[in-house]
Structure formats: structure tokens, C-alpha cells
Amino acid sequence: MRFLDDAGQFGLLVSPLPGHRMFRFQIIIGGALLGDREGCILGSVMAQLKDRPQLDDAKVDIGFDPSGLMDRFAVDEFLHDAAIISSVESLDGWTLYGFIHTGRFFLLAREIMPAGVGPVLVGSVVKADYDSIVDAARDYWLKSQ
Description:
This protein has helices spanning 43-50, 66-75, 77-83, 127-144, and strands at residues 2-4, 10-16, 23-29, 32-34, 39-40, 84-85, 94-101, 104-113, 116-126.
């Protein structure tokens, strides 16, 4: 099941798989599907998505350079710890930071590749739309267990 914003630029894919509490989980950002199709357990990532931090720090200003901001998250312990999204096996090959800033949810994603890292993908939706997407995906996940 896909849960998307109206433009199809941000969303979550959550599908039950055979096996106890196993789900396919991928993130849609900029219309691209991130993550693999392998099964995973979603408890931790669902909690992380529900509780994204509000970052009003000038370091995450909207006029940011995505690569520069990814680098800043990597070296600023407070920003890194607040915004990192981890704990889901299907996204092991990605570095993801998600946060609320100026009434919008921002997601920065970079694929980890054998020869370095890929380009930074950026997704952004109004916080109310983000909350609706996460709530719908979370409700579906809970009912499908």
C-alpha cells in the first residue's frame, strides 16, 4: 500500500509479507522509490517517523545546499542525533535525515555506494500532509500485523 502526498513526491510504501510481522517498507522521495524489497520489522522506524524533531536552528535554513547540509548533519552531533532516521533493514544502504522546519517536513537521503556516495535527494511536504501520510501508514501497519 502506498501513502503519498497529492503530487506523488513524498510517501511511504508499506506491504505485509509472508513471515511473522514482516513488511516491505520503502520511502518515496522526489517520486523515486528508496530502499530494497526485502522484508523487515517496522516498529522502530514507525516510532521515528511519528516523532520527527522540530529544528529551528539557522543551520538548517530553507536556502540550504543539500550536500552541504548532509555533511553538516554528519559532523554536528546534536543535529545528527535529532534528525537521523535509522533502524529499518530495507534502508540500510541509505543515510536519511528527517525533520520539521518552518512548518514543513524535510527528508534528505543519500545512497551509500561502493565507490562513495550518491547524490542527495530532497523531499519536502507541509507538516499536516506529512502527519496524514505517517498516520495512515502507521494505522495500516498496525491493522495488518
